[in-house]
Every structure is written in C-alpha cells, then in structure tokens.
Amino acid sequence: MRRRLGLLAVAAAALVLSPAGEAAGSAHGGLTPVVLFPAFHFTKLEVTVRDQTAFPGCPGSGSFQDWFANPHPGNAFSQVCRDELLTLRYDRHSREPMRRRFSNQRGVSVRILDYGSPASAPFYGPLYHALEAAGYTPGENIRVAGYDARLTPDMGGFLRRTKRLVERTSRANGGRPVQLIGHSNGPLYAQYLLTHTSHAWRHRYIHGFSPIAGNLPGQGALYPILFTGLNTEDFTYPATPTQARTSARMYLTAPSSWMSAADPRIFGHREVVVEDAATGRSYTPAGWPRLLRDAHLRWLIPVARHYIGFVRFTDRAHFPDVDVHAQKGSGIPTVVGAVLPNLHVGQVLDPNTATFFTRDGDVNQEDITNGAVRAWRHMTCFRFQLTNHPGVDHFSLPSNPSVIAALLGDLRRSRSHCG
C-alpha cells in the first residue's frame, strides 16, 4: 500500500546500466530469465460491466480500467461507481471453502490486460529499461505474473496460470531456470507459488527469488484503511463520506485486505494500529477480533481468521527453499496506524490534521514487516541475504541503482546446488 500523507509522489531514480559486455548470464550460459510479481494494484485490470442492476446510480454497461497511476480510468464511471462495482460479493452463509465464497458483482467481469507482458505493469519501466541495457528483451526473458489485487493467491486461477507462465518462460529461454522478482505485495504471491510447488519443480524452473520490500507478514496501516478506504489509482484517502464508505466496503470484502493486514503471530502487541477517539480504546494487531466486534463487523471474523497470515513463510515447512536475496528500505517515519473519530465504516481523514502512529520503515511498510524475512536465514543449503538501503522509500526501491545492481548480480550468480 501507499499513502499520500502530505508526501509528493516519488520520482523514479536514475537507472543503473550494466557495463558493456557484462550480461546477466547464469552459469550454464545465456541470460537468466525474469518473472516479475508486481505490487498491490500495480497490475492493469480491465473491468467490463454488462447489464448490472445492483447499483442503479452507476452505468448499466461499459468498461473501465483499474491500476495505480492509471491516467484513463473511464470517465463514464465515477470513483464511487468503480468502488462499488469492484466490491466483491461475500456469501457469509456458504459452507464452501473460503476461497469460493467470493464473487464479482452480477454483470461484472475482470481481466488482466497484457498478461505476461511488461505492459501489464508499467510502473516498473525503469527496471525493465535497466534489464534491457543488460541485454534483456521484454516479452522474451522479462515477463510479468500479474494478478487481481483484490484476490489472494488461492483464487482466480493464480497458481495454475503462474506455473504455466514460469514454465513457458523457462522453455522459451533454452530451459534456463527463472528468477522471481517481487515488489511489495508481489512477494506474497511468489512465496505462495514456491510453497505450493514440489522441490523437483523448483529445482527445474527456479533460479532464485528476489523480494523487494516484501509485505510477507502484512502491515499495520491496513487496519485503518478498512474504515477510511484508499483510492487505488493514486493511493490517496477518499475526500467525501460517500466515497469513504464505498472504498472501505471494497476493502472489507477483499480477501487480499486481510492477507495484507499485520499478522499477530509476527506483530503481537508491538504497535497500535487503530485508536477509537470516541472511546479512547486502542487496538494492536493481536486485538483484531475485538476491533471487528467493537465495530459491529462480526460477520467478517471468519474471513479475517482465514486470511490474516494466510501466506506462511516463517516455519521450515514454508521456507521458499531457493536462493533468496531480499532488499528493503529504512530510516523513514512510516504510518502503522491512525486515530479514528469512531469505528464507523466511512471515515474521512485529512492527512494534514489526522493523528497517525509511526515507526521506522520505508514510508509504506514498517521495520517489523521488512525485517520478518530474516526467518529465511535458517534455510538449509540455500543462500539468504537481506540488503538494507537506508533512506530509500518503498516506491523508489525497484528503480534504485543499488537495488538494480544487486538484482543484476543475482541474475549472473550460479544458484546453490542443493539437490
């Protein structure tokens, strides 16, 4: 997630180019192909509406696009309508597995634009250009495993689709194993792939894993967003009560919201994520059940219980078991929670006057989140490294020269021989 608490959007940093003749080749020759897993809402989605009647104030038919920094969201659909039409339906009475209790609104379909191509995640242009300078070709050995950011990786055919993309990328590049690069929420999806494939599959197809500020245990700032909403196209807070309600409702029924919320098994009571000004009561990640009860959102407790901490990574059974070189930023005050006037859904926060709780971090994710990946130091045989970039913010990391240099080094390096 990204916020705009009086901060300007961060410009892309200068590119780092590989020296002439120094290509990112693996030990068996050629270039190590790359599959990128984008951040939350950094994948281009097209939403098609046909004869919908659930929201009479919105167009019955038409289409719009949803992705961060989208310059053409679709003028026929207001922000409120886009929120409402992207709000998933949740059948709280279903006895189906949790992943099958969610569906799009009737008459609404969503697809990934340009799946597999760098065009599906344009934010990462500086990274693509740096790879091209090192000899890479977009669409051939640079591919993108996009996803619908509302959904968790057990939904929407993510696992089968992504396995097929990795396998095809490897075959198209002489059978060379693939480097997975993920940014922000992207590493959650890459980690799910790695822990839901066999050791033989990983040995055949994976060169290594490069998580950049991976949101693996979630983050505290997600909890207040359940009450305030957040606009996915520019990561600003809604400015009106109506849009705050529609945005917050969209987050409440999105499984990925709960997967992205700070996991109490990692966070415990180490930070306050919500304070209710009306009662003076404070809530930590470990207190999420009480937060939902006090907010009269008991119906969401089964969803939260299932998806908070959904992508496991700290125990040996869920180690990625590939070489990992993680990157993070630090040294920037980072919001982890907020004081809300009350616990009603649809709070309007003024970033200039609201009270926020902060910790050290990268402006988006706190130190607890960014350091949790150290659990992988205990992998047997496979290499693990975590590189800190003080003062580099979350959204500048993928284009930071030091980060790109490290990625190119990982691509050139032979993978560990671990059987």
> Counting H and I runs of at least 4 residues, what is the number of helices?
13
Strand composition percent: 15-25%
CATH class: Alpha Beta
Tally of strands: 15
As residue ranges, the low-confidence spans are 1-23
Question: Averaged pLDDT, please?
Answer: 92
The SSE string, one letter per element, is: EEEHEEEHEHEHHEHHHHEEHHEEEHEH
Structurally, the number of domains stands at 1
CATH topology: Rossmann fold
Query: How would you describe the shape?
Result: globular
Structural class: alpha/beta
Compute the separation of the termini in Å.
37 Å
Q: What is the assigned CATH homologous superfamily?
A: Alpha/Beta hydrolase fold, catalytic domain
Radius of gyration: 21 Å
CATH hierarchy: architecture? 3-Layer(aba) Sandwich
The oligomerization state is single chain
Strand order of the largest sheet: 7-1-8-9-12-15
The biggest beta sheet reads: 6 strands, parallel
Helix percentage: 25-40%
Explain what the structure shows.
The protein is an alpha/beta fold and 419 residues long. It has helices at residues 79-86, 125-133, 158-172, 186-195, 199-205, 222-228, 241-252, 255-259, 264-267, 288-294, 301-307, 367-371, 401-412; strands at 34-37, 45-49, 62-66, 89-90, 102-103, 108-112, 142-144, 178-183, 206-212, 274-276, 281-283, 324-330, 332-340, 356-361, 384-390. Helix 1 (79-86) packs parallel to helix 7 (241-252) and helix 6 packs across helix 7 (241-252). It has one domain (34-412): Rossmann fold (3-Layer(aba) Sandwich), CATH 3.40.50. It has a 6-stranded parallel β-sheet, with helices on both faces.
